Amino acid sequence: MTFTEELKATAQAMVAMGKGILAADESFDTANQRFQKLGIPQTVEMRRAYREMLFTTAGIEKFISGAILFDETIRQATQDGVLFTKVLQDAGIIPGIKLDAGAKPLAGFRHERITEGLDRLRDRIDEYYSLGARFAKWRAVIAIGKDIPSQCCIEANADALARYAALCQEGGLVPIIEPEVLMDGDHIIAESFEVHQRVLHAVFKRLYLYRIQLDQMILKPSMVIAGMDCPQQSSVEQVAQATVECLRNHVPASVPGCTFLSGGQSTELATAHLNAMNRLSKKQLPWMLTFSYGRALQQEAMKTWMGKATNVVAAQKAFSHRAQLNSAAALGEYNSTMEVITTASSPIPS
């Protein structure tokens, strides 16, 4: 199979009907911060044990098509010595890798950031492919505020996304393009819509210029939503309508799917928004709409696990339940009554 055939097949598999992507690519700092809040020791072994708990959850492949890993995680193994990449592959879940080096201050543009990590990226892609990765992720961060985002910030991040995507497709990895418009701030939904349009227009213009094969990539957009501090919060239906309209205006039909990030939304709200979009579209869109959630998939499982081996079964049940609800939302079949889960998922006292 050529890279082209492999990339097309992988991209289609990543957005298979009713399945989404687990974002388990938290950096050391992010993972440790979440552990610290729950009183879980911030060690390599704890991070490994936590990822093992997620990846070995029975039947999770029914709802999860791929898992984005961090550099540390793609090299780790279960307690029995089985590489995580093999655990995932054996379950029919595609391993992926986070490739960006994080968002750093954009020189000359206060309060704006540019994502770095292009140096030696070709070599890193070759290594990660040999380690089992078949797709990758790169996140750009766009803030809304007074006089921002600047067009320079949008264009610089769009260019980096396109350069990354070109190197990925050359090296056999399906690129996930993640231009995240942040929820931080007090902006109304109309401002979010306008910025999303500017960002998506710039991104796809750059993807075209860099000759990216659109049927061999995945878009990971944020939802069109008011800022967290905005007193005028929109309804679930308004968010769904604005997001679908924005995507229709700017995302070419040849893109296989959009796997949304949750972007700081509550667990339940991220699921409800995805469900509303799929109900609104009635499967008449040219691309699949599904999830690529991190915290919105993991939060309850982590709280249930608490770093204790005695809680693994209950934590896996919580994780599987959340994945199942998001799978239902990807089909437009979710409702809030499905949130109920038996008390068997509660932590078991040690």
Overview of this structure, please?
There is one protein chain. By secondary structure, this protein is of the alpha/beta class. The chain has one domain: TIM Barrel. 45% of the residues lie in helices and 14% in strands. The chain contains twelve helices and ten strands. It has helices spanning 3-14, 28-38, 44-55, 71-74, 84-90, 121-130, 151-171, 189-209, 236-250, 267-281, 295-305, 312-330, and strands at 20-24, 64-69, 94-98, 103-105, 113-115, 135-142, 174-181, 218-219, 257-260, 288-293. The strands form two sheets. The chain has an eight-stranded parallel sheet with strand order 8-7-6-3-2-1-10-9. It has a two-stranded antiparallel ribbon with strand order 4-5. Strand 6 (135-142), helix 7 (151-171) and strand 7 (174-181) form a beta-alpha-beta unit.
